[in-house]
Amino acid sequence: MYFPVGWPKYIKQPYSDLREPCHIISSCDRMLFAIVSEEEISIWYCKPAVQIVSYTQSEKNLEKYGRYCRAEWKPDSAALAVITSNSYIVLFKVDLDISVPNHHCLYVTAESSTRAHNYLEGNGFVDGNSVPAIKLTRQKHVKLTANITCCLSIREELAVATEDSFLTRIHWSGTENTKASVCLKDLSVAADMLQSRGNKLTLDDGHVIQMEYSPIIGGYCLVLSSGKAMLMMSLSARGNDSNSSGVWATNMNDAECQAVNHRYRLIAYGCAGAYGVIYTINEVEGLLEASHRLQVSCKNFPTLSKTVGAVTCLRWTPDGTALAMAWKKGGFALWSVFGSLLACTVGGDYRCDKQISECNDCSFTKDYLRLFPPSVKAMEWGLEGYQLWMIGSQCSEGDENGQYATVDHTDIFQLQFAKSSLTVNPCMTNHEHVFLQGEDKLYLNTGDITSKSSQYGGCESHILVGSKQWQIIPISHSYLASNWPIRYSCVDKAGQCVAVAGKTGLAHYALFNRKWKLFGNETQERDMVVSGGITWWKDFICVACYNIIGHRDEIRCYPRESKLDNTFANIQKVPSQVLLINIFKDTLLVFCVDSHVMIFNLERNNTQSNPTVDISKIQEVGLSNYIPHPVCVTGIVFTSLKIDVAPLVASQRPVQSAKETESLLLNVAGKLLVFQRDRSGPQIKQKEKSSPQKAKPLPFSSPSVVATNVENLWTTSRSVTGKLQLTEALWLSCGCQGMKVWLPILPKNESQAHNFMSKRIMLPFRVDIYPLAVLFEEAVILGVASDASMFRYNSTSSFCHPSRNLHDLPYCSIERTSQVYLHHILKQLLKRNLGVQALDLARCCTELSYFSHVLELLLHEVLEAEATSKEPIPDPLLPRVVAFIQEFPEYLQTFVQCARKTEVALWPHLFTTVGNPKDLFEECLINGRLETAASYLIILQNLEKPIASRQHATLLLDSAIEDRQWELAQDLVRFLKAIDPNDADASPPLVFNQGKVQPGSYIGSPAMSREECDFTFSSVSNVSRIRSSSVTAESAVREVSKEKVKLTHTKSDNQMISKRPSPRPVQTNSTADQVYIDSILFRHARKLLSSNRLKDLGYFAANIKDFHMVAWLKKERLRSGKVEDFVSALRDIHHQFEWPLPVLSLSAFQQLKSKAFSSSSLASLSLLDEDVPNASYPGQNATLVPQSADTDSRGRPLPKNISFVSTEVSDDVVLKPQLSRADEGSLATLEISDTSSLFGDFDFLADSSSSLDSLSPELELLSQEIISKGPGQSELELRYLFQVLLEGGCLEWALIISIVLRDSSSVIRTINTASMTDTPLEIVARMREGLSYLELWSDTECVGYKPFLHAIRSQIQVLTKIAEQAPPTLKLNADVDCVPATVEEGNLSPGTMSIHEGQGQADSPPIQEPQKQHECAIS
Description:
The protein is α+β, with helices and mostly antiparallel strands. Helix content is 23%, strand content 28%. The protein contains 31 helices and 65 strands. The strands form 17 sheets. Strands 1, 2, 33, 34, 35, 36, 37 and 38 form an 8-stranded antiparallel sheet that branches. Strands 18-17-22-21-20-19 form a 6-stranded mixed sheet, with no helix packed on it. A 4-stranded antiparallel sheet has the order 3-4-5-6, with no helix packed on it. A hairpin with a 5-residue loop joins strand 58 and strand 59 (739-744). 41% of the residues are buried.
C-alpha cells in the first residue's frame, strides 16, 4: 500500500552534545511534532518542516529534574507532558504566541501568500498552510517515587508506568487520580479470558516498559521487561482500572516494543530475534493469539538476525494499512497490515559496506556494514502518511558483541512515501487501475487502460498489459497551497479523469485536456470537508462531505463538464457522518458512523441545460449487530455475485431487474462478510400513487464469513460470456497468505447438476508482488514495487555536522509490476480433481499471447515441488498436469521449454511422466514444429549417445532445409560439427541411474566474423567484382527492399572470381565429421538443383557456411547440374523469382502483322482481324492491359475469344492451337524461313530471311519498350547466381538465367566460356538442344521471347559450330524417327522430341488441337 519514493530529507538542526534528539512524537492531528533531547524540547511544524519554538532547561533544573527522556501530547494539542530521568513529569502549556507580530503566520509559503485570510480552528491554531507562532510555558511538575518507564495520554489523564509495577493516573492539572491507579502485582493474568484461572504477576515477570491504550480493543496493551506481553482489560464500565484482569499473549517471551492497530484490532510486537509478531483477539476462545509473523525471508537475507539486531521501533500508518519496523543496528522494513513485505532496506541497493571518512585532510576507510537508515531511536508518521520522521544514530564502530562503541552523530530525517488510493478510498473505480497518490502528485499507470474485446473482436484485449509507463499528474499548486495534504483521490473507469480532495473542497483533472478544475468561489471550497470518500459515476463526481456552514453531512454530485460550483451540484442530506462510499452500476452505497448502510439510486437527468442527477434513497440496512465499531469497517462493496450461481427454476425466480445487486460485501477488520438477498419470504409490495405495484428491494439475510485477513477485494460489474469464471469471481488480497479467489463452479448441464456440489470454491495461491489491481479478462494482477539506487552525496553546507561530510543516500523509485495468476488457479482446480472446470477455464484464455507461458509455469511449479520433495507423494499431481497440458496444441513446446529451464537432475522425473524425449522429437518432426524439435535435440544430447544425437540432428537438418529454415539449418550444422567422432559411441553425459548427475554441455562453433556476412542478396556491397557488364546499374541496388531474407555468399566465391577456375577441387577438411557433414549438405544440394529449385539452392549456399557452392558445382555439372528440360527450368525460374514473362506492345504486334503480310501470301487477314482489336486503336505505345474482362481501355467490348494481359494481371490468355504446321525445326539447324508459327494459328513462312533480318532490330527495340522487369531483389539474386553458376561450370543454368534476364551480354559470356574452356561437349549439345525447344515453346506459347531468341541467333550458331567440330561419337543423333509433336499444356518434353530434319514434314497434314489456355501473354 505504501511505497518509498524520492530522496530522504535530512532536517537542519543546531548541533550540541546535549541537544542531539532522542525522541519524537506527534500531536493527534499530526500537524505538530515534539522533538526531545536531553536538555531541550522543541516544537516543529509538519510542512514545511521548521522549528517553531524550543524550551531549554537551565543547568540548575537539569541537575534537579534530570534529562528529558520522553514526551506525550494532550489529545487537543494544548499541553505537553515531558518525562525526566529523575522521575519527574513536567507539564507544559502549548498556546498561540500573540506577542509575536503576525503571530498567525510565523512563516508564509509563497503559494499561500496570495490566498485569502486564514481561519482559526477551535484550539486557536491557524487553519491553513501558514506556520503559527507558538509559545511553550512550563506550568507544573509531578514527582513520583520510582523511575518512570513510560507514559500514555488517555482522554483527560496521563497513565504513568513506573519500575515498581505501579500504573498511576494523573490529571493534566497535576493531581493524581488514586482511584484509577492500579498495582500490576495485584493483577490476575490468565492464558485466556473464559476458562483459565489467572495468576498474579511475579518479580520474574518484570515491570512495564511500553504500553498503549485501545478503546476498540478494550484495554491496555503492555510489554514487560521480561519480554512477555499482555492485554489488561478494565472490568468497570466507568473505566476504573482498579478492577482489571489480564490475558497473556501466547508464546511471547522476547518482546521489545509494540504498536496497536485500532482499525484492524491488531497488536504488533517487535522481538529480539529481528522479527515481529501480529496478535489478534480470538473472541470465541478469549485468547490473544498470533495471527502471522513479520519476518524477512532467509532466502533473500540469510544473516538478517545477526546483521540488524532486535526490533526497536514499530509504527502503524495513520490509516492502519501498513506497519513500519526498524532494527537496533539499522535498517527499515515496511509491511502491509496482514504481513506482506512492501519495502526493505536491508541488502540490495540500500546497503553500503564501506564508509570513507575525511578528517584533517587525510582519508581513511572503515570496513564495516552500514545500513540505511542507521540505528533508529524513534520514528513517527506524518500527516496522511506521506512522510516518516526518524531519529537515527549513525554508529561507526562495533565491538565483538555487536554493540557499537562510538556514535558519530544523530540525525533527523524524513522518508517520502506514495500510497495507493485504496488505503483510504476503496471504491470500485480505483480497483481497475494502478493509482497512487503522493504528497503533491498522482501516479496513474496508463497500461491499465486495456483495449476491450468489444472493440477489437477479442483478439487484442491484452495489448497494454505489459506497459509500465507512469502518467504523473502534478496536483494544482493553487489548490494544494491551502488544502494540503491530499486525503482522497479517485480515477474513473476509463482512466481519463481524476479527482482529489484535501483539507477542504475538491478539484478534478482531465487527462485529455490536461487542465485542473477548481472552485471558482473559494468560500464554497472552504465550507466543505470531504470526510467519507470520493468516487466517479459516469461524468459526475460523488463525494461524502461535511457542510461546515450548515453543520450537517451531505452527499454531493458535481458534473464534470460544468463549473465546479454548488449551483450545479445535487445535494442529498444524510443523518450522520459518512465513513465510506462506493458505486455499483447506478447504485450509490453509503456507510455511516451509526453502522447503517444507505442505498441510493442514481439517475441522470438531461432535461436542463446542465446535466443533473436524481438521488433517491431505496433502502437502509442496520449492521450494528455485526460490527464491533464503525471504524473497523475498511471496505464495503455491492456486487452481483451470489453463492448459488446456478439459475433458479422459472417458478422460483423473483420479479426483479437484471441489474439488481445480489450481495453486500463488508470487510470488518479483515473479516469478509457476505450479506445475501433473503429470497425465502414473499416479496413485499409497496403501493404508491406513482407506482402502485413497485416492489421493495429484498432484505439481506444474516452474513457469512467468507475469508479472513482480507486487505483488498476486487470484483467487476462486467459480464463476459466466454469468461464467466473470471468475471464472476471474487478476488481477495490476504497479505502474507497471498491471494484468494472465490471461483464459481459452473456445471455443464444445469439440470443434472449435483445438489451436494458447492457452487463456489475458495482457491488460495501465492503471488510475488503486492496486488493493487486485477485484470479479470487478461488473467493478470498488477502491482507496484519500490527500487533504490545508492548515490554518494558530498555535503559542504554549513549546517552539517563536522564529522559527517559524506552521505550514502538511496534514491527510491516505483515501477509497476505484473504477474499472471491463471496457472495458480489451474493448479488448485486440478489438485481438487476439478479437471473439467480447469479445462473450461483454460480454453477461454487460449487467445492470450502468453497462454503457452501459463502452461509452462504450471508444469514447472508442480514439477519442482514434487521432484524435490523428501517425502513420498501418495497422489502426485504431475500426471494430471501433463494430461491437462496435452489437451492443447502447445504441449510439445511446453514440455521442452520447461525441461530446458529446469535443473538437469529433475529431467528423469519429468520425462518419466511426459514420455520419451525421442518420441516427442519425432512427433515434432511429423507436425512440422522444427524449432521445438531443435530444443528436444539439446535434451537428447544429454540423454543419448553422440551417435544418436547425430542421427536426430541429421533428420532435423533434412526437414529444416526442406522447410527453408536456414538459420536453424546453420545451427544444426554447427551442432553436428561439435560432435566429436571419436566419442560417437561413448556413454551419454547424463546417466540417471547414478547417484550424481553430471550436466552436459553444448559446444557451439565460434560466431562468424562480420566480413563473412557482408554480401547479401538484399545489400550487395561487392557487385563491382562481377565481370558481367549487365551488373552496372546502381539503381537496381538502391531499389532493393531491405526486408528480404539475407542471402550471403560462400567463402569460395572470392577465390573463383579472381582467377580462372582450377580443375583441382577446393581443399576441404578431410576429417570424418567434416566428410559426414559434407555428404549431408551435398545430398540436399543435389536434391534442390535436380528439382530446379535454384532460389532455394542460393539461400542454402548463402546461409550454410560449410557449403562451398562453386566447388560443388564443378563436381556436379555433369550430374545433378545438367538441365534435362529447358522449358520447365525456365518456367521454374520465372515462378521462383517472381519474374514476369515478356510481352509485346500493340504497336509492335501491328507492325509485325503488316510486315508479315507483305512477305507471305499464305497469311489469312481475317484470322488476325478476328483475334486482334481494331488496328486504328490509338494506344500505340501502351502495354495491352484490359480494363475489365470484356472491355478495352475505352470500355468497348472485346471479342469473346481473346483477352489481353500484362505482367501485372494474372488473367489467362486464350490461344488457339496451330492448325497447320509445315515444319518443326530449330534456328540452330534450319533456315529462318522454316520456323514454326509466330502468332498461334497464323503460319509465318518466307523463302528468305532478309525480311526478318530487317525486322529483328525493330522487334527487339519495340519489345524492350514495354518489358516489365521483376523485383530489384530478384534481379540481384539472378545475376549473383549467374556469376556463381558460370564459375562453377554449370553453363546450362547460366544460359537459362541469361535468357530470363534477357541479357545478351550474359549470353555472350556463357557461349564464350563454352568455347574458350574445356567444357564437355555434352554440355554444349544440351545447351543447343535446349535452345531449340525454347524456340518451339516461344513459337506456340510465349511470343515475348521470340525477339530475344532471334537477337542471339549468332551465339546459337556458335554453339552449332562447336557441336559440329566434335567427333562423330559425341554428335547429336539426328537420325531419330520424327514424331509429330503435340503441345501438352504448354510443355515440350525433350524426352519425346528430337531435332527434326526438314525432309518429309512439309506434306504432313495439320494437327487439329483443341482450344486451350496458356500462362504467357500475347499481343
